[in-house]
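Hello,

Our lab assistant flagged a job as stuck in the queue for most of the afternoon. It eventually completed. Since we weren't sure the result was trustworthy after the delay, we are filing this so someone can double-check. Below is the sequence as submitted and the structure that was eventually returned. Let us know if re-running is recommended.
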Amino acid sequence: MFRRAGRAVAAGTGDHRRGKTVFFLAACGWAGAAPHWLDPSRSLIPAVTLAMLLGGYALRTLLRGLDQQETENSDSETDDSSAMAAELFPTLDVVVAARDEEAVVTRLVERLSALRYPDGRLTLCVVDDGSEDRTPERLAELQIRFPSLRVIRRPRNAGGGKSGALNAALAQTQGEWLLILDADAQLCADQLERLMPYATSGGWSAVQMRKAVTNASCNWLTRVQAMEMAFDAQLQTGRLAGGGVAELRGNGELLRRDLLEACGGFNEDTVTDDLDLSFRLILQGARIGILWDPPVQEEAVESLQSLWKQRQRWAEGGLQRFLDYWPGLISSRLTRAQRGDLACFFLLQYALPVVSWADLFTSVISRTTPAFWPLSIVAFSVSGVAYWRGCRRPSEGPDLPSPGLVNLLLGIAYLSHWFLVIPWVTLRMAFLPKRLVWAKTTHSGQDETLQASEPGI
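-- returned structure --
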C-alpha cells in the first residue's frame, strides 16, 4: 500500500549537493587509487571481486523476467465485452509540456485526438511553456479543430522548467490518472485501451511504457539509441522481476494522481523530473511497472552535440536523486532486494566511470598497470548481452535494429560515452557554481509512418 500521512517524501531541494558530490568524487578517487598501493599480485582482487558480484547481478537481471512480462501483457488485454469497463478505464488526463515545438505539435494533437477511450473520461492538455516560435499559433488553430483540447499558457520566465509546467497542469486537471508525454510522442490508436487495463488490473501505482525510436534509420547514432532504448527496457523488466525497482523515463509515464499529489507533485529543483519522482514514489512504497508493448514512439537525437547536451542533463539529474534521497534508499523503507538493486545500479552507472578515470590517472603517475580493467570488461560484455536480448525480443512499433556483430560492437562502443559524461558532470557539480538548466531536446518533426500494434522480430 502507498504510505500517506507522516511518511511523505519531500522533494529534493539541492541542499548540500556540492558537498555530497565532493565526498562521492573523493571516495571514487580513493577506490581507483587504492589497488595500486597493494602488492602487484593482489592489485586485481578488488576489481575481480566486484566484477563477479556486479557482473553476476547484471547478468541475472538481464536474463530474467521475459516470460513473466509477456504473460502480464497478455493478461491485460480485454475482450470487446469488458474493454470499456469503468474500473479498467478511470478518468485520464494526457498532459504534454511543450516549449518551441512548432515542428511536432500539430502531429501530436492530431494523433492524441485519435486515441480510443470511453467518452467523457479522457482529457487532452498541452502546456505552452513560454514558446517563442509558432507553437502558440499552432495550438490556437488546433483548438478550433479539436474543441476538447485544453491549452495552459505559462510565461517564459515562470520557472521550474518542465516540472513547473507539469505542476501547472496538475493544478488545473482532475483525472484519476495522468499520462505524461513529450511533444514528439507518438501513440497507436488502441494504446490507452491496452495501457490502462494493464495499470489498473496489475495494481501498479505508475507505469512506464517502453520507448521506441522512430528515426533509427537516420544514422548510426540514432540506430544505437534505438538499441539503447530496448536495452533499458530489458534491464528495467529484469530489475523489477528480481525484486528490484523500475524507474520512470519521462515520456510515456502513467501516474496515479492521488499518489503523485501525496508526494508533492513534480520537483522543480531538479533537471530530471522523472528520475526524481521515481525515487519519491518508490520510497513511499509505490509500485512502478514496465509495459513492453505497445511502446511510446519518439525521436532520437541526431548529432553528437545534441547527445552530449542531453546526456549531461540525464547524468546530473540521475546523480542528484541519489544525493538527495540516499538516507531513505538505505533504510528499511525499501526491501533488501530493492536496496541491493539500487546499490548495484549506482556502482555500475555512476561510480564505475569515475573510479576508472582515477585508476587510469594513478596508473600513469605510479607507472603501474590499471587495476579495474576486469570490471570494465565485464560491464561492457554484459551490455552486449542486454543489447542482444532486447533487440531480439518480439516488439511492436518501429523495427528494432538487428543485434548482429557489427551493431553489437557499435552499441558497446557507444556506451563508452558515459565514461566521459559521468566524470565530467561529477566534477562540474563538485566545483562549479550550482545551476539548474532544463536543456530542451530539439525535435525535427520527421513524419514517420506510425507502426501498428503488430509484433515482429
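-- support follow-up --
The delay was a queue issue, not a problem with the job. The result is valid. The chain has two domains: 17-64+333-431, 76-312. Residues 1-6, 67-72, 74-84, 451-457 have pLDDT under 50 and may be disordered.
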